[in-house]
Each structure stands twice: as structure tokens, then as C-alpha cells.
Design brief:
CATH superfamily of the largest domain: ACT domain
Strand content: 35-45%
Subunit structure: Dimer of large and small chains.
Number of helices: 4
Enzyme class: transferase
Oligomer: single chain
Number of strands: 9
GO molecular function: acetolactate synthase activity; acetolactate synthase regulator activity
EC number: 2.2.1.6
Number of domains: 2
CATH architecture of the largest domain: 2-Layer Sandwich
Largest sheet: 5 strands, antiparallel
Distance between the termini: 55 Å
Shape: globular
CATH topology of the largest domain: Alpha-Beta Plaits
Order of helices and strands: EHEEHEEHEEHEE
Helix content: 25-40%
Protein name: Acetolactate synthase small subunit
């Protein structure tokens, strides 16, 4: 053994890598849950997460079947593979839940989010904000002499990148819808 106790053939490439090699990887998953559209269902789903200490990174809910009174809840969460399986199993056992799909593992999916981004600035900062908005295909939905409100649809990563670029130009406020996702194909 070397003086740093690094085993030959170890996947660690640095003596400073202090990660536990036996620790499970934390993964992000997008879950689509079809539920009855009735009072208290969303609170029960959220209660399942909060009661067990699971975090919800994004949450969207809307009625998708008016005649059948069903809503679709799209949840983005993080956890170990074991925790994700536990979440899916517990959701599936809830009475108002009809279907649970893990869009992350079931195949390709399309994910989009809508954001409204307010940027205040004058002069060159204002011109640069408009230039970047054009590159990112963000639409100006409100404009005053002091600010813009941009509307942007895209992946959460695209919205994060746009907001990061707007920060030094006068980013004031961001409102996001959360992820909406559908599996690709039939």
C-alpha cells in the first residue's frame, strides 16, 4: 500500500477524493402520477414526501381528463435508487392514485418548463439582455423604460443558464412553473 492508503486499481483518481466508494449515487427522477381530481389529493402526495424527508425539486399539477376528473402530477425528486423505488411504491399504494410512471427510466421523455424572468437595466446592460434573450429564444412579454419581463420555455438547465447570464445584467425576479413531462413515442 502507498503511504496514502490508495489501493491499486481504485477508481479514485485523486488522493483528495474523500467520497465514500460504497455510498449510493443520488439520482434525479421525473415521476408522472395520474390521480383523481379531488380535494386533498395533492396534500396527501406532498405529505408522503415531507413525512419521509424526501425533497420535491419541481411539482406541477393540472387536470388532464375533465370527464374522468383526473389530474396529472409531475414530480421531480432526488434520491438513491432505493429511495426512488420506495417513493414509487408508496405513491402507487395511495387510494386516489391510478398510475405512477418514472419517466427517467421508462425511456426517452420530453421535459419543458416555463419561466418569467424580470431583468432591470439601462444602456449597454439593456442591449445585452435583449441580445441574449434572442439567442435563448426568450420572448419579451412586458417592457418598461427600466425593465423587461422575458418568457422562456425550455429545459430546466436552459432556464438556469439564461438566469445565470441575466444575473450581472440586472436579474430581479424569476417565476417558474416546474417541469411538465411526457414520454416520447406511442
Amino acid at each position: 500500500m502507498s503511504p496514502l492508503n490508495i489501493k491499486k486499481g481504485s477508481t479514485s483518481h485523486s488522493a483528495y477524493d474523500l467520497r465514500d466508494p460504497n455510498a449510493e449515487v443520488i439520482e434525479q427522477h421525473t415521476l408522472a402520477v395520474l390521480v383523481d381530481n379531488e380535494s386533498g389529493v395533492l396534500a396527501r402526495v406532498i405529505g408522503l414526501f415531507s413525512g419521509r424527508g424526501y425533497n420535491i425539486e419541481s411539482l406541477t399539477v393540472a387536470e388532464v381528463d375533465h370527464e374522468g376528473h383526473r389530474s396529472r402530477i409531475t414530480i421531480v425528486t432526488r434520491g438513491t435508487p432505493q429511495v426512488i423505488e420506495q417513493i414509487k411504491a408508496q405513491l402507487a399504494r395511495m387510494v386516489p392514485v391510478h398510475d405512477v410512471h418514472d419517466l427517467t427510466v421508462e425511456g426517452p421523455a420530453v421535459q419543458r418548463e416555463l419561466a418569467l424572468i424580470k431583468v432591470a437595466g439601462k444602456g449597454d446592460a439593456r442591449i445585452e439582455a435583449l441580445r441574449l434573450a434572442e439567442i435563448f429564444r426568450a420572448n419579451v412579454v412586458d417592457s418598461t423604460l427600466e425593465s423587461f419581463v422575458f418568457e422562456m420555455t425550455g429545459t430546466p438547465e436552459k432556464i438556469d443558464a439564461f438566469a445565470d447570464l441575466m444575473r450581472p445584467l440586472g436579474l430581479r425576479e424569476v417565476a417558474r412553473t416546474g417541469v411538465a413531462a411526457l414520454a416520447r413515442g406511442a
